[in-house]
Amino acid sequence: MAETVPVIFEEGSPQRRGYRFPKCDVPEIPLEEAIPTEHIRKEPAPLPEVSELQAVRHFVRLSRLNYAVDVGFYPLGSCTMKYNPKVNEEAASMPGFSRLHPYQPFETVQGALELMYHLERFLCEIAGLHRATLQPAAGAHGELVGLMLMRAYHDQKGEGSTRRKVLIPDAAHGTNPASAAMCGYQVVEIPTDRRGGMDLEALRKAVGPDTAGLMLTNPNTLGLFDEQIHQLAELVHDAGGLLYYDGANANAILGISRPGDMGFDIVHFNLHKTFSTPHGGGGPGAGPVAVSKELAQFLPVPVVDKTESGYTLNYNLPNTIGRVRSFYGNFGMLVRAYAYIRTHGPDGLRRVSEHAVLHANYLMRKLQPYFDLPFDRHCKHEFVLSGRRQKRNGVRTLDMAKRLLDYGIHSPTVYFPLIVDEAIMIEPTETEPIEALDEFVEAMIAIAQEAQEEPERVKGAPHHTVVGRLDETRAARQPVLRWRSPDCV
Amino acid sequence: MAETVPVIFEEGSPQRRGYRFPKCDVPEIPLEEAIPTEHIRKEPAPLPEVSELQAVRHFVRLSRLNYAVDVGFYPLGSCTMKYNPKVNEEAASMPGFSRLHPYQPFETVQGALELMYHLERFLCEIAGLHRATLQPAAGAHGELVGLMLMRAYHDQKGEGSTRRKVLIPDAAHGTNPASAAMCGYQVVEIPTDRRGGMDLEALRKAVGPDTAGLMLTNPNTLGLFDEQIHQLAELVHDAGGLLYYDGANANAILGISRPGDMGFDIVHFNLHKTFSTPHGGGGPGAGPVAVSKELAQFLPVPVVDKTESGYTLNYNLPNTIGRVRSFYGNFGMLVRAYAYIRTHGPDGLRRVSEHAVLHANYLMRKLQPYFDLPFDRHCKHEFVLSGRRQKRNGVRTLDMAKRLLDYGIHSPTVYFPLIVDEAIMIEPTETEPIEALDEFVEAMIAIAQEAQEEPERVKGAPHHTVVGRLDETRAARQPVLRWRSPDCV
Amino acid sequence: MLSVIGVSSISELFADIPEAVRAKAPLDLPEGMAEATLLQHMIALGAKNQSADDLVCFAGGGAYDHLIPTALKTIVSRSEFYTAYTPYQAEISQGVLQTIFEFQTLLCQLTGLDVANASVYEGASALAEGAIMACSHTGRSRVLISATCHPEYRHVVRTYLSHQGIAVEEIPAQDGALSLEALQDMIGDDVAGVLVQHPNFYGHLESVHRVSEVVHQHGALFVVSVDPISLGVLEPPGAYGADIAVGEGQSLGNTLSYGGPYLGFLVAKESLVRRIPGRIVGQTVDAQGRRGFTLTLQAREQHIRRQRATSNICTNQALNALCATAYLVLVGKEGLREAAYLSLQKAHYLERELRGRAGVRRLADRPFFKEFAVQTGEDPHELDKRLLSAGFFAGPHFAHVGLQPEDGLIVCATEARTKDEIDRFVDVIGVHADG
Amino acid sequence: MLSVIGVSSISELFADIPEAVRAKAPLDLPEGMAEATLLQHMIALGAKNQSADDLVCFAGGGAYDHLIPTALKTIVSRSEFYTAYTPYQAEISQGVLQTIFEFQTLLCQLTGLDVANASVYEGASALAEGAIMACSHTGRSRVLISATCHPEYRHVVRTYLSHQGIAVEEIPAQDGALSLEALQDMIGDDVAGVLVQHPNFYGHLESVHRVSEVVHQHGALFVVSVDPISLGVLEPPGAYGADIAVGEGQSLGNTLSYGGPYLGFLVAKESLVRRIPGRIVGQTVDAQGRRGFTLTLQAREQHIRRQRATSNICTNQALNALCATAYLVLVGKEGLREAAYLSLQKAHYLERELRGRAGVRRLADRPFFKEFAVQTGEDPHELDKRLLSAGFFAGPHFAHVGLQPEDGLIVCATEARTKDEIDRFVDVIGVHADG
Ligand SMILES: Cc1ncc(COP(=O)(O)O)c(C=O)c1O
Ligand SMILES: Cc1ncc(COP(=O)(O)O)c(C=O)c1O
After folding, report:
1. Chain B contact present for C289, CB below 8 A
2. What is this structure's pTM?
């Protein structure tokens, strides 16, 4: 029943509409009286003209072509595709939260500010740090803010112009170096050692008076906890640098180990990963950043403060890095994350991480016989296999990823981290039942077998999806980035 | 991506749950203290044990196996599968409507009663009648109520025990005779004449002092307006009988012709057809019944009255037929229908019928060359084709219906009305865009062609659905009406 | 389109409607409204109500304020469930069909009986349908109904059955429960069925085991109307020999919605399967042997059997049944027990706290589940006013449902009530108006 | 599972975390809550706010109370959109991919430009990203921004660009609009881009045609930040030669939500396509030639290009972009014009009614769209109190966003405001506090 759907511009006909505005109830003036003619639009934008039925049907049909957590297992490593509890949606959609204008007087938004105030406290407690900004709209945005804070810190110390380098593991997510660059930093890549941790010797060599700081995920992007974290931290701190924690992998450490206790000075969380806010097909997210006491002075404005007369937004931070967005953050996501933390409490959050790690280790051991496992240690919330073995039969990780779609399961993250050949990065999350894990294992084993016995079947995958494997090269070489009326082409 | 889904009892494992109740905050007493042991359940009901994720995923996946108006064209004759405007859902889900207990004091439900009061007025205006009950839960329920009213009327006249027959056209919907039987009436079938109307002569013969009344749809189940309605009404009324209007086809006559003006004494509407309340996979509906002034005294209790001190439920109808359900009706459906009527207003409602009829005639003329059209007249909101021609190639209407599913379109109603051989009953409704109508026409023409050229392909349909044609005989002969644990079988 | 049809205007399509029956004027209805205006209007109308969000609900009597898991909304509002018709085309309706099959199974599990239908309108008509089944199965036409059944249910049963020439007699109550002696006096071999509600309208448990014995001694069927939540702690009808269990399914995840749409359920012993009204879904296979679901045993139904059908029901309460299905799946085995257990504890706490309070006294001192009847000694309107001004309501008043005594009142506490709410309620209702 | 892993307890899996960095105590957080308790808590917290449902919103300044068609919720809340990740696996993500493709097209249609991305965080960072594009495209590192831009946007641009060593200079305002003379004085061949908001923060129209000429004479790029609703009546950026149009998309079907999540949009001329930050969806085919959509031009992005990417953005605001897409599809060609037209009429009615009222005077007498700046002569707090007690709010106050004069205020009326609301608002704000 799932068939491709026409592009909306191929539907509809003149005068049709999906929504009727109320009639004008004020005396009208001619448009030209209000707006100089040069400013008046000559041709209306050629938007679609469809009825409500057509609009709804269009999107409902499109939705049916899409996979999602509510549809099936989503073992996308590094993305923490956990279940998004529906009660959080209920909370966020209450008019008392969803219908607040950002410029309402403070006395009318005390509940919102209270929520933000407490969420900041919760995140600081989880991070083991002092204060936080809730403004960043996503993880990468948080990274940018964190690095700006780092720079402000060095600037204040008069070392801003000499500390120009940020150290980043070779296994890091692409946003880490990209954020560093956006913040004006040079990136120095630090290799990974044979146990999958950071190469301490290499770090020792790299670190110095030009070091602004080190960005790290721990557990790292291999899903492994870097046991040398204390030594790493010491090295960097001793050299006058700061430690930045990319919290994308925080789902492994809730209530188990706090980044602040590991020695990190700056931490971002991805509320859309660890704290279950839905991913929406690519966003919105939220990437709050928590910092040590020393760095709190640099936080972006405004911060939420509690005063005698209630909660308020404080813009008066003389050393602030400034502003990185309008208003106060992706508030709707904050409501959901707050609800999530209140639902779980300390015990629940710890259980989250315990089960996330349990599930990952279970999958790792189940799949180990069939795929190469570059780092054979207990993993944390995720682990990375290599498709090397299958590559010998000409079957690449991409092929297996596509084949998995035929089994009705979303593929793991592939080709990341870059340091693992033909990487397959698997993160099951704590919310999956064992049935889903086992189904995935079965599919993966079947594919490993197919890779050996019927490699062509795997290489031609997917076979059962609404479209076959798409020509990405063509998409990039002859970009068609918008629909155009056939008359115009 | 659409695959069958395990039955929920095949999923889950002990102790899992999808919802957590708050802890008990009152002092507890042992169960045995409250409830005599013989009443205490020994074994908990073996309900599923799944997480919220599993429950949501289960039903989301199941939903993806289902067709619906929001997915595509639904030309199910007699069912008026029009689009259900989403604003009506918004209205019905407001806590001010959805969170009212039926036994709240009247002063706390004035808005609800006001809505019911006005909806009754609106429906009476549309019907051309005097008062209405909003209680019946569906069309058939309305029929039963209507017939009870008929009986009460004759009883009052002292003719209850002699007027034992209800006249019903042979083309009538099955609920008509079934309702008559449930009301203790004998059913007399009246044949259809060659123009598709009621056979006046036959009616003349059938009508008499034992006639309680006549049940009619107009336009009838052939989608044709019975032009002799005045004569029919006169005949029945002259014989002392009453006329009952089955409003399932009211989508053709809104603001165009009123049943009361046609001579009907009792009318039911299907709010889930004409007034756009969603069908929910088989219900809920609502089947309000409007009646003439003379019959109002017999309406079921309570009715909504407007008094000095506000709106109230009036139980004091000495001649009432009694009660046909608990409480006051499918209130949530009433809210939606009210919203629908308020959205459309008199002009909008008339436009509904005009376009419903326009669409049906368009389809009829487009398809006429390819299928037999037993009654070649302008139809109203629907029309009936016959698959006779295709039957000659061994392709039955059922086969074509199933084949249509392969084209991604729901089948029309088939084999109803019974008086048309291999009937195909098509009702497009006013909410469909011409694109959808044309797509349907193309599919039907293609199937007509297939029926000629590749009959086996049609007879083996559907081919592209999640399951193939199901063995209905087996379902009825070896009924499996509930899931049983494999251990028990 | 007009040219395809061969007419020059839409009105030509209506030319066959005789002038005499054509509407002379536009309908006399308020003008249409844009969506935003409608919403404002509906909000204003809704604001004339005070809902169970504004007031704390201690009302029962067949509609209950139980908790509804939020995830249920996600499930039920799926367009494919919401805007589908009856699953006539099984191959593209497996979603709805399988959920109904699961509904039927869940109801069997709850009641301990064998076969359920896909729902009927609501609890009262379910009871009437049960009675009709008993008559058609036994070929008898006398039905006994306990006077302790919900008065509206009794009224509905009388209305339905009187039109079929079935005599309905009430078994009197004694101390808030059915009188076994009276039952024994009244029953005979001409009785088709005995109808009992358990827990009954007053909240009390009935002697269902004894009733069952007596009924079966006379070859009649035992039709019991049950609160599905109660089956989290109470013996299932199958365990005490009921032949047919019916009831109101609203408590299972359906909003209060001022009395509807709710759903009636009907579950029976295997032997009664072909007497069951309404739709039933069965499991079968396709040509390749794949499992699938379809409407079945349709020879019982009106569209096949017409005047000889088991009932006239066609459209039922499918979406409400889906709510019930989703509810039972979400709360699950342990959750249903908890919902029942917590409701029982809350109600009993309420009852204990009310003991010895001046304002109210119980109608009878009997085991009950989550609601009970009290006498308030106060005019119902006055009491309502007092309760409302404190933010509460309870009910039904006996006066509202035509029962005696005039000052009788049902009070109910589900798991949704908190101790604080109960304590405050007790402080209001537990004192005399003039105290 | 433990046995498969070969450990005897979950804690063994954490044995590699050094003692020193292991949490010593449970997190100091409030205990967990059952769903119903959480909901009560959230309701209580929400009740400490007064929302735009409780008060009538006359506020603007980058977030607007426009009407949202109800059908939008049905669309956006589809689980498959709501709970999907970024569409990395195109073949099972055609739903999300096609909606983004449609979003890109709609934005091109609105702005009259060639290529749009899939969204960035919000309006202010979109402007900063536009400025960065201008720099990388021209190889220059000086940016001019009009002082009439939203002060928060200016602040964000400064913050972003200063870290990249780009000089940001403000073009002063004159009478509530950018000073063309100042622009001419400041611009030079070292300027990468000129950033203008139109209508500007004060609601006024800018001389975009003239600005465009001046900017292009110097080989710089013209980056304009626009209100998408305004494009229902105002010339599209493409028509006056803008190279990049950015803006805040909240108005297109997104709830106010106390400032987020919203969406930034960014549309540019074809020639700039490889400088665009973030995700872009393109159309392509599969082996059978069937049309399909996929993320494309990824060589711009961080996961491929790392520190040399056009931006660090990864997660964007996809669901908000879907809201915008659904909004534009629902209101359509005529509807967008109406939304703009009605907003303009309401705002101008408000402005006319305020004329000559003692309480307020406009900051400058310039053409405006749906909001305008006034001076109230009253302390912002006092004014807020008066407005609130009458059930209104407006804003931002200049004081809140760091602007002069202290008593400056933005007032805004969208199509959601009724005449009655406006009249009542005028009667409150239009009088002196002491009058
Ligand atoms: C390890 C890691 N770091 C950073 C990010 C960037 O986070 P966001 O997508 O929220 O910007 C991701 C997201 O996938 C990630 O996996
Ligand atoms: C002509 C006709 N009459 C009566 C009915 C029965 O209505 P309901 O299903 O609401 O009980 C129907 C329903 O399909 C119908 O089409």
Report:
1. no
2. 0.97
